[in-house]
Amino acid sequence: MPEISAYRILDVDNHVYNTDAIPAILNPHWPPLMSRSSPRADIAYQALRQAIIEQALLPGAKLPEDHIGAHFGMSRTLVRATLARLHAEGLVDARPKRTVTVAQPSLDEAREVFEVRRALEREVVALVIRRWRPDYGAELEGHVREENAAKARHDERVSIRLAGEFHIKLAAMSGNRLLERYLGELVSRCSLILALYGRPHSSECAVNEHSDIIAALRRGDAQTAIRLMDEHVGSVERRALLADHSGEETDLGSVLSRYAQAIEARQTAVVLPTGKKRQAR
Ligand SMILES: [Zn+2]
């Protein structure tokens, strides 16, 4: 019974806890609406999520509640809510003694994630080609130019983020929001898997493969586009699961400061009415 083992986690260090805390971390549907009421928690969530996806925080890194709470000036309840959100997305693990760490998916779990991702990416391409518009081509090509620029200046963190965003952009063009959400989650998990099993700080997405997919989409060649995407995700998986990762020391405080500052700066910079950005392409 999963509930029992969740409570056993609470018992190991003989402290009395607010008993809704740990089960909440293990419950993927909780909390439903935290970010509306707490901008601090939202910044903490985004900072942690981005730091994990960009491999600034590596699998296994500890995320102590008190450290995060002090850093963002948040209550324990809000810290737990933030960690619960990340847990629901498969980005953190809840361990005994209430230790939360950046998730370390097993090799089998990693293979499962890639299997589902391959299936969904094929579906994305099939849907995008049906709804294709020439401005999609321009948008994707613009994105690939950014990817090439980041690679040229050896900006690995940005390369990792842009590689994932290429796939999420395509998913958004499919017009299916559920598919976009699921794929977004899988791309985040793949980034974590790359951090764990791939070369350190590597996206493993070959940018020329993205270009080939766009060219097939532009030609309206569904069969080739789907095959190229399938081969591309297969290559990412092979590269991702090829090597062991040695692990690296990271300072949680400095990583959180960096990401929180960047997110806050972005939030204060957004003064345009919503929807403006999408129209301006
Ligand atoms: Zn890719």
Can you describe this structure?
The chain is mainly α and 281 residues long. The chain has two domains: 2-104 and 258-275, Arc Repressor Mutant, subunit A (Orthogonal Bundle); 107-240, Four Helix Bundle (Hemerythrin (Met), subunit A) (Up-down Bundle). Helix content is 68%, strand content 3%. It is built from 14 helices and two strands; from the N terminus they run H-H-H-H-H-H-E-E-H-H-H-H-H-H-H-H. The protein has helices at residues 2-11, 21-26, 34-37, 39-53, 65-72, 76-88, 107-130, 134-152, 156-173, 177-197, 207-219, 222-240, 252-269, 276-279; strands spanning 92-95, 99-102. It has a two-stranded antiparallel ribbon with strand order 1-2. Helix 4 (39-53) packs across helix 6 (76-88). The protein is globular, with a radius of gyration of 20 Å. Residues 1-35, 244-248 and 271-281 have low confidence and may be disordered. The site of zinc ion has 6 residues, from helix 9.
